Amino acid sequence: MSSDNNTLDPESAQFHTLPGRDHPLRFETPPGWPEESHLVMSYGALVAREWLFAPGGETLWSNFAKGRTLQRSMLDRMAYEIGFLTQLERRFERLPQ
Predict the structure, then answer these.
(1) R_g of the chain, CA atoms, integer Å
(2) 84: alpha, beta or left, given left = phi > 0 and alpha = psi -120 to 50?
(3) Which tens digits make up the pLDDT trace of 2-19?
(4) What is the residue extent of each domain of the chain?
């Protein structure tokens, strides 16, 4: 997909989730990122979603780490992390207070 030589300023990078309540997250690719980045973001969200809805499985950090190590480039790892953490954030926002 991309190489580790790619640079991205995290301060200026923006990503947007498209609306969808209980459906898996869908992502718009940030400007300047490879078109396929939304697929890696979606994969990260899927891994987080599987952890959320499969109690008694592996720990959160081990699920996160396993999916992250599958990504070949720094940009892919960032896309995976965005998807994973966005899914968790979305779920936590809905918890009763």
Answers:
(1) 14
(2) alpha
(3) 333 333 344 444 444 444
(4) 38-97
